[in-house]
């Protein structure tokens, strides 16, 4: 069977909003990407995730759906599962791989097995934390991992519920703040060094790491620092030697491949003072707002955002046609 040509004006539905703590960020991302894609001639509709979504998708039958949903349901694979049930191709990682990447402890375990350095960590469910006694558990944590520590929800994004702990007395409060955003905490050794975000994209000719973005804040890189201009300074590309920049890009691509991700991702890294690179976490639905890191990285590489997003759309459409061709060929073989 011959591949069908890509539509010259693909009909795309962007999913934005949802009910997570990151709803506002998702809506801003959706509007930005929609505007950029429309500038390339694409027919784009933005739809929230609500009771009208499934009938709207069945009625519209778009060529492609791009989930720009952050937080639970948007990144845990569940919405992507529903889209797969409806037979709709998507931009981005599939549902099973999204679930693995969404869980920070599981993702760290997968990349560590692939030989990628990541800070040592433990996970503590809130229920076990209470049953065993908070003080005894936290004493064991600090004895094992030392200080400083980073406490974060095991699932979630936008640095919600994340704390840097430099003294043991601050650890209980950090745990309480973390449990406000999830029932399981990831506690990891804090790596001091240069904080980076490295985006990986597939524009049709294989995976490539975009230039690293260096993040410098006047305090913790929390939700406010991420989405409200003024508190954070970004350097795109990062102020790295070519050798270190190459290692950071290679780690991001290796993590993307180890986790089975697709089309785009953003990996958060730390460069230690000795130049080695540590993996922190990965995001399968990176923010696309005016202060988000993937757009900054793309522009640093010389990409016009509309053209880059359109290339991602074309890659996703080609992948969907390839899957359909394989399915049709398999059906033909069985019928014979």
TrEMBL record:
MF (Gene Ontology): ATP binding; D-alanine-D-alanine ligase activity; metal ion binding
Keyword entries, A-Z: ATP-binding, Cell shape, Cell wall biogenesis/degradation, Cytoplasm, Ligase, Magnesium, Manganese, Metal-binding, Nucleotide-binding, Peptidoglycan synthesis
Residues holding Mg(2+) 1: 268, 281
Domain ATP-grasp per the UniProt entry, residue ranges: 108-314
A GO BP annotation: regulation of cell shape
Catalytic reaction(s) noted: 2 D-alanine + ATP = D-alanyl-D-alanine + ADP + phosphate + H(+)
E.C. number(s) listed in UniProt: 6.3.2.4
Ranges that cross the membrane: none
Its biological purpose: Cell wall formation.
HAMAP family: Dala_Dala_lig
Protein name in UniProt: D-alanine--D-alanine ligase
Lineage of producing organism: Bacteria, Bacillati, Actinomycetota, Actinomycetes, Micrococcales
Gene: ddlA
